[in-house]
Amino acid sequence: MNYKVRKAFAIFILTLLILVATTSYYGIRGIDNLAYVVAIGIDVGTNENLLLSLQISLPNGGESSGSSSQSTSVVVESVECSSINTGIALFNSYLGKEINLSHCKVLVISEEFATQGVSEVLYTLTNEIQFRTTSNIIISKCDAKSYLEYSAPLLDKVSARYYEIAPTSSEYTGYTESITCNEFLSAISNNFSSPVAILGSINSEATQTQDLASSEVTSHYTAGQTPISPKNDGVETMGLAVFNDDKLVGELNGFESICHLIISNKLKNAQIRVPSPIEELDFIDLYIELGNDTKNSVYLVNNTPYITSKIKVTAKMQSMNKNINLLDEDLVNKIETSAETYLKENIMNYLYKTSKEFDADIDSFGLYASKYFSTNQEWENYNWIHHYKGAYFDVELDINLRSSYLLTSTDGGNDE
After folding, report:
1. Of these four, 77, 112, 240, 385, which has the most CB atoms within 10 Å of its CB?
2. Which CATH class is domain 263-416?
3. Do 339 and 399 contact (CB within 8 A), yes or no?
4. pLDDT digits 0-9 by tens, 371-409
């Protein structure tokens, strides 16, 4: 190896060592000087346009400063500001650390703020290179600041992981849907559907709805109403917040959320309670899942949408009165008929509620209707959401009790 080659190699090694040392130093310095946000809250401000709240992770699990907060690994700070950007700038000045949104898992917006429109907030955040559009969006029935303060994971000590896991409960309950900011913005931007968001609230004795606590309506709650008796007040997500464009127009309870997931072909599984065909004022618990993809069709009759949905559901019986022989074919047929009648009625009520009351197409029926228009301009001129309010619906529902799930009997005896 000649002198020039050795010299070039030595310069390369020296440069590499300097780069590694500088990068390592910067990384360590960066961690020490960043404040990582795990949740953002947006409320209507008192004097300014909005109240911005940030739930910030404490790197060493320090004590939380909020008197009502249950978590010791995060702190909630709030500031009155004219915009999100000015609010973050004020936080940077106050905290002495730079706010970092790369670990944010959820955006919480109060109902009061959401009725005024949320698009400016969402577009501002998505313009931030650090903010992940995969963050979930929750509309809180209480103020967003309180929601963040009471958001304490019962079964997980890491708040970021808690926010990441909590929305997945929709996959095994059907009581809500995991909605990301990206999905919400997509629904706002297109012209054939309306957006929805997760509905959340603080659950306490004061918010619980006692008159709903009957055997008939166990899933007909919205967030904050369920008769749960936690040791401390906490937050829960149940139901969906419905939007027309970017403004909140209403909410759906847990059962209506199941209906939405069935129609939109997103239901994984859920438990419903249907009237028993055997005894009056008695109910049967059914574990349901989609047997086939839901088939939706839209026809335009005199320019009015006529919408049909063909639904096949597979059900497993989870509870039943004793002394009933489930091998009785007539009995099984009666149960299927009772379940079909009850579920179809609720789905029809849900569909007319979203169209007549909310004027919001959260099931993207407009996508099926757009095929009747040659150009996008024709479709725009038709104004789908305006016509959707006058839509007619027809639901064809078939429920099949899976024979492999049926018990031989419930009389406590042994079958031969």
Report:
1. 240
2. alpha beta
3. yes
4. 999 999 999 999 999 999 999 999 999 999 875 455 544
